[in-house]
Model the fold of this input.
Amino acid sequence: MMVGGEGGPLRKDGGVAFAPTCRRCLALIDRFYPMPHADQRLSLVAQLAADVVCDQGFAEVHGVPGDQQTELRKRIRKLVRTRTGHGTKIFCRESTIYAECREIYDQHASAHARVAAEAVSEFLTAGGEAPSRRPADWVVSWEAWDVD
Done:
């Protein structure tokens, strides 16, 4: 495993020339590969995810192919910033993208807390039965919007 700066300077003359971090090295290598073609549903899914983030402060996009994730993340960030003026943190885990805008989420925090408290109360009073599940209106599915 390579760590930036591990082992000291790389040059014998004493000049500082540290090795790049893994993240930076992978970014440099990625430039040599051709850019993937944008999928036809990319704009639609980005708009839907940005709508959910602007409404609730967070969203999930499931089933996103790896070659489309970078562009989808860029578009969601740009749309949310254009609409609200707030920044967005976006995380990826396998084929799922998680988008979060803390400023918008904080505006709705009391409503989210109330819904969570009601769910716990419903579970405790259900007598051991599983309560009805709330629809996951913060989830957007990549596969659902396949337009041929």
In short: Residues 42-145 form one domain. The helical segments are 22-30, 42-56, 66-84, 102-107, 109-125. The chain has a mean pLDDT of 84. Residues 99 and 125 are 33 Å apart (CA to CA).
